[in-house]
Design a protein that fits this description.
The structure is a single chain. Helix content is 44%, strand content 16%. Helix 1 links the parallel strand 1 and strand 2. The mean pLDDT is 96. It has three domains: 203 residues, Isopropylmalate Dehydrogenase (3-Layer(aba) Sandwich); 110 residues, 3-Layer(aba) Sandwich (Rossmann fold), CATH 3.40.50; 34 residues, no CATH class. The radius of gyration is 22 Å and the shape is globular. It has a ten-stranded mixed β-sheet with strand order 2-1-3-12-11-4-5-10-8-9, sandwiched between helices. A two-stranded antiparallel ribbon has the order 6-7. The protein is α/β, with parallel strands linked by helices and 379 residues long. The structure holds 3-isopropylmalic acid (IPM) and magnesium ion (MG). Magnesium ion binds next to helix 11.
Length: 379
């Protein structure tokens, strides 16, 4: 029996190509794992009306963790259009399977390291090394939203004198999404970010929030952050507003180290941080819970490139590296990261995003080159 059981979820579009590339690399490393394919994504929405079939959830429950390629998400109307004719009148509503998985398996922490590997021509500046801790199940992703609002809620809200203008607009003209956060959720993400800083000798943790406007949720997060920070006197605790942070990260990326944020602000700031280290082709991520984790790069399914085998698999390789770390395979994780770093710094093999349109190597060629480096070390 293999040491690990890993759910293998290529998902949509280029997710398939970067996962195939990752298989080459994991096999070269010799990870002792059984990979179990699990269906997820657009195809299953269209054919079955469910992008996350129950059988997939069962597979996940029976594995140590999951490796996930990418997902295609479309707005409600477009999603309905593409549904199989026989399913169109069943009142099905599309949902994002990755957001659902985070909720179902309580994958409360989204860890997104953004490191500028030396010699990457796409680096904004050499030496950037940021780590984003994104709360992964609450906030605007908590699923508490309505259109139209249940009358009871609408009436209760509109009874408040501050809300009169909404009453005037009429129930049918108002949609409501909320940002709902718990003290436990804030405490968990803040503590993990400080623990990480302590473990890896990071000098500061910055809370990215907007408590001057989102007074209640932002206020809660800020109070919790300050409380948790007291337990880590050796680590600087800074606070910044999300808008200012987008500017400061571009201006002075070296001032920052570990960043912690609620769900939506973490989503935003992690894309920005990815932009500083070469873009989504290099941005890895892990959705981590207490006893299960789903490893998925930050990038999407890039339908425009699907079928061409040209997208950058480095983000997926670095995501696999995070999986190896989580499984406790530190040696393999380090070897993989070293091989990736070598291929990047040598610069002879790279995809179109790195080398320019029409000049890039294929996804598979990049995988083969990383595998070659790994074999060279093995030899
Ligand atoms: C991410 C993505 C997802 C998110 C989408 C695909 C639902 O942007 O993982 O950052 O918003 O969390
Ligand atoms: Mg995102």
């Amino acid at each position: 029996m293999a040491k690990y059981k890993i759910a293998w979820m290529p998902g949509d579009g280029v997710g398939n190509e970067v996962m195939d590339a990752t298989k080459i690399v994991l096999d070269t490393l010799g990870l002792d794992a059984e990979y179990i394919h699990a269906d997820i994504g657009w195809e299953y929405w269209c054919k079955e009306g469910n992008p996350l079939p129950d059988r997939t959830i069962e597979i996940l429950k029976d594995t140590d963790c999951a490796l996930f390629g990418a997902i295609t998400s479309k707005p409600r109307e477009e999603a309905h259009e593409e549904l199989d004719e026989s399913l169109k009148d069943k009142g099905l509503v599309y949902f994002s399977p990755i957001v659902k998985l985070r909720q179902l398996f309580d994958l409360h922490t989204n860890l997104r390291p953004c490191k500028a590997y030396e010699g990457n021509p796409l680096n904004y500046k050499e030496g950037i090394d940021l780590v984003v801790f994104r709360e992964n199940t609450e906030g605007s992703y908590g699923g508490v939203e309505w259109y139209p609002l249940p009358e009871k809620i609408y009436d209760t809200l509109c009874d408040n004198p501050k809300m009169v203008k909404w009453k005037e607009k009429g129930l049918e003209n108002v949609a409501l999404s909320t940002r709902i956060m718990s003290k436990q959720g804030c405490e968990s993400i803040c503590r993990q970010s400080f623990e990480y800083a302590k473990k890896f000798g990071r000098k500061s943790v910055t809370l990215v929030e907007k408590p001057n406007v989102l007074r209640e949720t932002g206020g809660l997060m800020t109070r919790v952050f300050r409380d948790v920070a007291k337990d880590y006197p050796g680590i600087d605790a800074w606070e910044a507003n999300i808008d200012a942070m987008c500017m400061w990260l571009i201006k002075n990326p070296f001032d920052y180290d570990v960043l912690v944020a609620e769900n939506m602000f973490g989503d935003i700031i992690s894309d920005l941080a990815a932009g500083l280290i070469g873009g989504l082709g290099f941005a890895c991520a892990a959705n981590i819970g207490d006893d299960y984790a789903v490893f998925e790069p930050t990038h999407g399914s890039a339908p425009k490139y699907y079928g061409q085998n040209v997208v950058n698999p480095m983000a997926m390789f670095l995501t696999a590296k995070m999986m190896l770390d989580w499984l406790g395979e530190a040696d393999m994780a380090n070897r993989l990261e070293t091989a990736v770093a070598e291929v990047i710094s040598e610069g002879s093999i790279g995809t179109y995003d790195v080398k320019g349109r029409g000049k890039g190597n294929s996804t598979t060629e990049v995988a083969d080159e990383v595998a070659r480096k790994l074999s060279a070390v093995n030899a």
